[in-house]
Amino acid sequence: MADNRRTLLELRQVSYARQGRMLVEGVDLRITAGEILTLIGPNGAGKTTLLKLALGLLPPTAGRIDRLPGLSIGYMPQRLHIDPSFPLSVKRFLHLAGHCHPRQLATTMAETGIEPLAGRAIQNLSGGELQRVLLARALLRNPDLLVLDEPAQGVDVHGQTELYQLLADLRQRRGCAILMVSHDLHLVMAATDRVVCLNHHVCCTGSPESVSRNADFLTLFGPAAQHNLAFFSHDTDHHEEHSHG
Ligand SMILES: Nc1ncnc2c1ncn2[C@@H]1O[C@H](COP(=O)(O)OP(=O)(O)OP(=O)(O)O)[C@@H](O)[C@H]1O
């Protein structure tokens, strides 16, 4: 991607209300080409709702959302309903979802390390295996922006580290931006350029270091945040080398 500072997506004062409840309130958010931006926040804070607004799956109640014309987005949802009575191999699932060239399918499966799963029934995959298949599906769109809703859910601790490393590699190799929701605070802090802490409204935003020191962040996450800081300090130098600021 030639211009790494190009704005891909911008939300201005975006709100979303449902049944009289304000789920997202006055959010400003800008995603530029090639950056990794992570949304954190407690359960029910509106993170998934905000992703759906950004994707255009929900219409905002107020505010405006601008997407770069022709922007290609790959979305990995938090949940996927698969009919257990309709056996479907991983390869067929990806083929149906991707409408892509067999060579592109093979490359993407290699990139995400799921070749050994090709013939397995999608219904029988473990949580971590399924997450990689869903990531591959999102990549088949050749996205400028990958949107991932809790990509590491159901993945064990070792697998989580690998998954975040894979995301960093994908960004490096493909130059795509990544917007993701995560609860794995300490892992995310090392694997992201910018953090947005959401509790319906944006509580704080900035580099991982600045957010992890922010009073609102510490209030929201309490002891978990302190724990996180201990982990994060190990990774700070490493992260700084790759930071986009
Ligand atoms: N279709 C809907 N109708 C009514 N309320 C909804 C709907 N979808 C979500 N909500 C509510 O909106 C709030 C925010 O939900 P959302 O899924 O965006 O939160 P989240 O931050 O992603 O949570 P989690 O971390 O638990 O996944 C929750 O209280 C949820 O119950």
UniProtKB/TrEMBL annotation:
Residues 9-224 form the ABC transporter domain. Pfam families: ABC_tran (PF00005). GO terms for biological process: response to zinc ion; zinc ion transport. SUPFAM superfamilies: P-loop containing nucleoside triphosphate hydrolases (SSF52540). SMART domains: AAA. Keywords: ATP-binding, Cell membrane, Ion transport, Membrane, Nucleotide-binding, Translocase, Transport, Zinc, Zinc transport. One of its GO terms (molecular function) is ATP binding. This is Zinc ABC transporter ATP-binding protein ZnuC.
